[in-house]
Every structure is written in C-alpha cells, then in structure tokens.
C-alpha cells in the first residue's frame, strides 16, 4: 500500500490528540526508551578486561582474579564483580589476575593499561610552588608540570598504574576511566 499525503490526511481527520495526550506521550516515551549500553564501565574493571558488555557477559564472579592479585588492588564490588581499587597501592601490571581468570573475561594485553587516567585538581599546588611528587614517581614518565603549574598526564604514555595517586599527600588526584 502506497501511503500518500491523502492517506495521512484521512488518517488524521478522525484522530484527535489533545495537548494533554501529546504531553503524556512525550513523557511516557522517554521512560520506555532503554538507555544505550554504557561504553565506559560503571566502576574500574581489572586490567585486561574485555569491553564492558563482553566483560559482564563472560565474568562469572568467581573472584579468582581478586584472590590472585598480590598487590590487593582488586576487590569485590557490591554486585559480585571484580573492581580495580587503587587507593592504597598501585597496580604494577603483573598480570596475575589475567592468568587466574578461568572465563576469559580478562585477556593478556600487548601493553599493560588499566584504562584509568589521572585528573589533577588545583588543590595540588600553592600558587607559588608545587611538590612535583607525581612527576618524580611516575614509572612511565607520563606526568609533567604544565605552564599553569598544575601537573598533567600524557594520556598515551600513561598506563593508569595509579602511582601518582598513591604518592599524592594532598589528595589532589583522581583516576577516571577512559576507553
């Protein structure tokens, strides 16, 4: 059937949509639409994790990766999945978690990367001086001091180990997930 302009005119001539009905349709339509799948995980995943959707589909919450981590930076999230928690120790990329994973949700990486990157706040420095501790301790030499006096991280050189976060005594660094 060819739907022409005449068809739509006839269709709408006997249909009445009130303003209230139109408004209700807009409101309920937004509730019924499923959100797009998250590309960035809801919490930091272990090193070597597959894409977010694949990881959650394959991980069976066995916790073998958590038990295998010698640094203790993998913990169990409240939903039972492993979570990378760089708060008191940095991740050294030993790959023990990857080797312990029986489901293949964690895969060996050609280059170690936690997919976390540091973000520096202005609480980091006093206007006349900074400590530069993050620059000194970065094993990848990815941190440097910018023109503003605030540290910055080279996203390509950084592997997200978290050493800068651990060494910062001013709590001026947070780690954010990247793809």
From TrEMBL:
Q: Is the keyword Metal-binding assigned to this protein?
A: yes
**Every 4Fe-4S ferredoxin-type domain range:** 48-79, 82-111, 114-148, 149-178
Give UniProt keywords alphabetically: 4Fe-4S, Iron, Iron-sulfur, Metal-binding
Record flagged with keyword 4Fe-4S: yes
Gene3D superfamilies registered for this protein in UniProt: 3.30.70.20
Give the residue spans that cross the bilayer. none
Record-linked InterPro entries: 4Fe4S_Fe-S-bd, 4Fe4S_Fe_S_CS, Fe-S_Ferredoxin
Name of the protein in question: 4Fe-4S binding protein
User: Which organism encodes this protein?
Assistant: Atlantibacter subterraneus
